[in-house]
Structure formats: C-alpha cells, structure tokens
Amino acid sequence: MGTGEKGTLYNAGYENRRNLGGEGVRLGERMVPGPQLSERARRERAVLLRSVDTRTVNGGASLVRRSSMTATPETPVPLSAIEAAARTIAGKVQRTPLVRAPQFPGFPTTEIYLKLENLQWTGAFKLRGALNKILGLSPEEAARGVVAASAGNHSQGVAWAARARGIPATIVMPENASPLKVSRTRALGARVVLHGADYEEAHEHSMRLAAETGATYVHPFDDAAVIAGQGTVGLEILDDLPGVRRIVVGVGGGGLLAGIAAAVRGRGSTADLVGIQPAGADTLRASLAEGRVVVGSRPTTFADGLATRHIGNLPLQILQASKARALVADDRTIARASFLLLEHAKVLAEGAGATPLAGVIEHSELLADGPVVLVVSGGNLDPFVLDRILFIGLAAEGRLLRVRAPLKDVPGALEQFLDVARTEAANVRHILHGRESPDRPPGEVTVEVELEVRDAEHGEQVLRAYRDRGWPVERVSLGSGPTNPLTSPPSRA
Ligand SMILES: Cc1ncc(COP(=O)(O)O)c(C=O)c1O
C-alpha cells in the first residue's frame, strides 16, 4: 500500500472493495458492519475483488495521479478535478443545452428544465467520463489500449474517446445488448466482444481481457477520472441555472449522479440531489440506508443504461457525503415518460434518460418547488423499443381504436365496413381479414381493424357510428385499461 495522498485515496477505495458485503465497509473514519455473505454474494464479491486487483495494475496509477490534488476519502473527486476535466474535454464534447420543459399534461406549474445529454455526440453523457479518463492516460498506458464493459452507452463513449486518442479499444457487451448500440460501437472502430447475460458477466470477462493484454480497464462508474468527467454535467447545470433547487438523475452505477453531486456541492450549492432507479434495479436506496454497496439480483428493466446489480464504491462515498436521496420508478412509468418527452418536449430519450421524468411522475412531491432539472442522460433508443413505446403511449391516450366484426363473405362487404371509418375520418393502420375460424360459419369472415383516432372521444364516436349502421362491432382491448401505465402510473408504497 502506498502512503500520503496517493495512498489515502486509493486505499480508501480498496478498503471498501475488500469489505464489500462481508466484514463491513469503511466510510470515512466509520466502519459499517456488513451482513453474513450468501453463496451468491460471496461469488459476486470475488468478482469485484478480482476487478480491484487488476485495476491496481492497469488503472490505479492514473486514477491516483489525476485525483491527488486535494482528494481525501470523503471527497474522492474534488471540485478541482471536475474543473480540470471540463478543461480537458472542452471542445471535444457537445456543450449540451438546458432547456425549459413544456407544461406536461396534469403537471403542476413548477419550472422544469431538461439537461439534454441525449444530444451529446455519442447520444449520452458517457463520452465525458470516457474522454477525461482516456485523455489522462500516460503515453505508455495509452499504447496498450483500453478495455471496457458496458450495455451500450459507455461502450460508445470509450470507443469514441479511444479513436480521438488514436488507441485501440476492446469493448465487452452483454449478449442481449441493444443491436443499435453494438453496431454504433463497432462503427466507432472498437472491437466488440459479445459475452455474458448481463453487464456483470461482461464486466468479469473484460477484466480478464485487461489482465491478459495489459490494456487499461475503463470502469463505467467506479473511477475518479470517469466521475470527474461526468461531473462536468453538474458544472454546466449550475452555470446555466445557478438557482436550481433540485436535480433528478437516473442511476445505474451512480457515476453520473456522484459527479454532479461532487460538482454542485463543490460549488456550494444546496440543491436537492435525487437519484432514480428502475424498480427492477433498485440498489441505491438500500446502499444509502445501510452505508455499504448492496448487491442486487440480476436487473430487470428495459432501461438498459441503468441495469446494474450494484452502485460503485466511489459513487456511494460521494452520494453519502452530499446527502443525495434515492427513489424508484416503475418501468411502465419510464415508458410513459419517454412518450411524454417525445410528444410534448420533442425530445428522444431512451429509458435511462426518461427515468428522471418517471421519478417525478411517481413522486409528485419532487415537483412541489423548483426549478427542477431533469437530466435526460441519453437518447440511444432502439427503434423497435421506440415503436413499442409509441404504441403504448398512443393506446393509453385513446388515440388507437381496434374493432372486430363478422362480415358477409361477399364482394364489397369489406369496402362497406371501411366506409364507416372513412366517413368518421378515422385512418386505417392495420386490417386482419380472417376466413379460417372454427367459430364462424361458412359464408362469414371476421375482420379486425386498427384505426387512428383523434382522442378517446373520437374513438367512442367511431364505435357508435358502426353500431348505428348495424355492424355488430366489438372493441378489442389494447391494454389501455386501468392497468396501462400510461393512463395510471402504479402507486408505490
Ligand atoms: C443514458 C444513461 N443514463 C444513465 C446512466 C447511469 O449512469 P451511472 O452508471 O453513472 O449511474 C447510464 C449508464 O450507462 C446511461 O447510459
């Protein structure tokens, strides 16, 4: 172990990892006891310990050097490191806008602002941390290249930054990673290895690759240089809106929220800092409550950017010191938030980027006072997922109507049926004309039509028009009843 500032910083992180979920965790001077380890927790701890050992070799030196200015265990990422990061990446990233959000339907009049990191060059804030880390490598480290693991956005950030530095990058992505994110990472020149069922398994494999090749492992969130890069988002928010009262951020490993927290607290702001996680990847609440990194089970959320099993040690230290809070939102509300952003703010947000809006939908007390900034952290939405979100959103707002009716199997019957939709100005999206049904006698067919209507009232009017003209139509459910997230967000205890 080293001594002085260098040793202090690195050893603090190392102590936490050594103790993860076992003997306890050191937070500043305090030792927080850990629970008994289950078999799975023991295995996961072993993976994390291996990751630390390898980083000691590959990533430790640059991490310590960049943070040694005024870093202490309590402030592992000082304001000076974030301001230095801002200078390092200036001109190499997009200075993203902070825009006033429109009045979303049913929302209070609180001022809401959107920090549009979906407009970042790689479609997510991740470029900031990756650039700060990779531009800070020594020439010898850079020559050996970099390795990273990620479900998508960190991959693109690392690939972009490695290309900017002119060094090779190998990225391990889970086998089920979004095809869009895989192809974009390849297009940026990185070698992509698909491995493992989730981020954690990809991470484990990438650590092995780093150990074999001597390349520097670029951690997506548990690295002081990466966190400092993400913290530049916080500096920009404060520059644009010094009076911000609350900043709401989606949390995976906690690097983004921790960077923002370190920046805003470093500048003396008392803004309320709120991290939102999907219900299927909810570990920050427990980690803050227990004062240690709590490892969850395999995440279940469509917001792939937030699908991590645990937050990082450095983020946890920073979030505790900055009194950040954690809340949870349901995936269905996240889909609703993504739809609302697109429809009303003209902003394309992937699940992770829409999660802060989902958070304030489910926890309306967050809008009691403002200004509130929602960090739209990314916009890399797979087109097929976007298609689902649009369908769910339109159905929930009553803007799709699906009807089914029996028709005589004679020429012209379908035309007469569709004529009702035409006279009611309802546009046809899909038609299913089914002859082979055991329930229908010969001479009859079933037709099912999906129509675009203006709103729920117009849908009712179209249904009435069919019935008035003698068609025995039935309405086919699109899931827009009370269980649909876009019409009724789930209540949370
Ligand atoms: C779009 C987006 N938002 C938020 C996050 C969460 O960031 P962090 O892991 O630093 O909490 C990620 C992580 O990949 C992301 O891609």
Task: Kindly describe this structure.
The protein folds into 2 domains: 72-396, Rossmann fold; 398-475, ACT domain (Alpha-Beta Plaits), CATH 3.30.70. Helices cover 44% and strands 16% of the residues. It contains 18 helices and 16 strands. Helix 2 (39-58) runs parallel beside helix 9, helix 4 (79-89) crosses helix 10 and helix 5 crosses helix 10. The protein is elongated. It starts with a helix and ends in an 18-residue tail after the last strand. Pyridoxal-5'-phosphate binds at residues 124, 126, 153-154, 220-221, 250-257, 305-306, 350, 352-353, 377-378.
Would you summarize the structure shown here?
The protein is of the alpha/beta class. The chain contains 18 helices and 16 strands.
Helical content stands at 40-55%
CATH structural fold name of the largest domain:
Rossmann fold
Q: What is the alpha-carbon Rg in Å?
A: 26 Å
What's the total number of strands? 16
Mass-distribution shape = elongated
Span between termini: 46 Å
What can be said about the biggest beta sheet? 6 strands, mixed
Strand content: 15-25%
Instruction: Name every ligand kind in the structure.
Output: pyridoxal-5'-phosphate
Query: If you average the pLDDT, what whole number results?
Result: 83
Which class of secondary structure composition applies to the elements? alpha/beta
Task: Tell me the CATH architecture of the largest domain.
Answer: 3-Layer(aba) Sandwich
The strand order across the widest sheet is 3-4-12-9-10-11
Low-confidence stretches: 1-69, 480-493
Integer tally of domains: 2
